[in-house]
Amino acid sequence: MAETYELIKPIMSLPKEKDTEAAYHFEVNILSWYGKEPRLDIRKWKDDRKTGKGASLALKEALEIFRNAEEIIKTIEEVQEHVNKG
Asked: What is the pTM for the complete model shown?
């Protein structure tokens, strides 16, 4: 079955990891998949709009996560520091 989505609002796009046609890049968007409620979507995309693996959250779930962004960032920094030491 073909993927059917409506781009409600683009939020951000990260650069490609490799500069090739086959390379994917991450995008953060608000999408409606198959005509359902809009969701926050974090996914790999190719330039031809083919999708890769990703995650999709209900807007309510996304808000809860972002309300805790400070704690999430702190934890990521602690883990990075630990990994870089060892």
From this structure: 0.82
Any idea what DSSP says for residue 44? E
For 14, 25, 35, 78, 81, the CA distances from 43, given in Å and listed in that order, are 11, 8, 18, 25, 26
CA gap 16, 44 in Å, rounded: 10
Residue 17 confidence (pLDDT): 77
Identify the structural domains of the chain with CATH numbers, from first to last: 5-85 (2.30.31.70)
Query: If you compute the radius of gyration of the chain from its CA atoms, what whole number of angstroms results?
Result: 16
Q: What are φ and ψ of residue 25, in 5° steps?
A: -135, 155
- What does the alpha-carbon distance between residue 7 and residue 22 come to, in Å, rounded to a whole number? 22
Do 29 and 51 contact (CB within 8 A), yes or no?
no
Below-50 pLDDT ranges, the chain: 1
